[in-house]
């Protein structure tokens, strides 16, 4: 319960944390079922809160998608959550650039470094290009 009190977890995350604490597989399955039954473990809710939190930290949709896949979330659930979220990715990208660089550089080498950083943060070429065109 302490693990779920801090933040939402995916089924896989919670199972891994319980395994680290050396609980048996049958106990883990029972706990996960009970948590899901009571609504304490909810993958769509976890997905929404994760997207919101990571986007506020300046990460783009591609990076967030990859992180959710690593956490055992179904790809269709991730796609639906990213489509339905109210995140303005252009604004997130713009804020990320502002915090890190002040603005995109006109110099070729510096701009290439900035673009690599933005791709690493999970923003795709189209999103970056749209910002550059404005």
TrEMBL record:
Domain RecX second three-helical positions: 42-82
GO BP terms: regulation of DNA repair
Predominant place of localization: cytoplasm
Keyword Cytoplasm listed: yes
UniProt GO cellular component terms: cytoplasm
TM helices/strands, residue ranges: none
Designated name of the protein: Regulatory protein RecX
Source organism of this protein record: Corallincola holothuriorum
């Amino acid at each position: 319960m302490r693990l779920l009190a801090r933040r939402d977890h995916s089924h896989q995350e919670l199972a891994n944390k319980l395994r680290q604490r050396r609980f048996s597989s049958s106990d883990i399955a029972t706990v996960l079922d009970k948590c899901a039954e009571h609504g304490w473990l909810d993958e769509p809710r976890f997905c929404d809160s994760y997207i919101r939190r990571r986007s506020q930290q300046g990460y783009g949709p591609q990076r967030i998608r990859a992180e959710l896949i690593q956490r055992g979330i179904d790809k269709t659930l991730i796609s639906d959550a990213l489509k339905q979220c109210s995140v303005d990715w252009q604004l997130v990208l713009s804020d990320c650039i502002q915090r890190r660089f002040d603005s995109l550089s006109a110099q070729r080498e510096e701009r290439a470094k900035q673009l690599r950083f933005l791709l690493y943060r999970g923003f795709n070429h189209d999103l970056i290009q749209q910002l550059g065109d404005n």
